[in-house]
């Protein structure tokens, strides 16, 4: 997959999951269900998103190293736009998403490097 395609995928997925879906939850769901959806996103959907995009970044570390950092930086801003309020507490989640993303990215990179080295050593 080309770098440009990976960047477009990352950008679209970040905006979709961190802006569009929270905004849709506000507009379409009423009451405490909205808060429940947010917590589900904070603790389940967003960490899985961070891991998946970071794994993708780990496949080409030199060009995509910034993806976990971008996710952590953009999450509070995009979610704040979705709810029309800036919440400093969202940086707590970003401080969790960043190391998770870095570990997934480096794990993928090192795993890929190890697999290539091992495959080359057998031949």
Describe the 3D structure.
By secondary structure, the protein is an all-alpha fold. It contains five helices and no strands.
Topology:
Blueprint: H1 3-28, H2 32-58, H3 61-64, H4 67-83, H5 90-122
Helix pairs in contact: 1-2, 1-4, 2-5, 4-5
Summarize the structure.
With 123 residues, the protein is mainly α. It has five helices and no strands.
Strand content: under 5%
Mean of all residue-level pLDDT scores: 91
Radius of gyration: 17 Å
State the order of secondary-structure elements, H for helix, E for strand: HHHHH
The helix count comes to 5
Proportion of residues in helical segments: over 70%
Largest sheet: none
- Count the E strands: 0
Coarse shape: elongated
For the termini, the CA-CA separation is 26 Å
Sequence stretches where pLDDT stays below 50 over 5 or more residues: none
**Class from secondary-structure proportions:** mainly alpha
What keywords describe this structure?
123 residues, mainly alpha
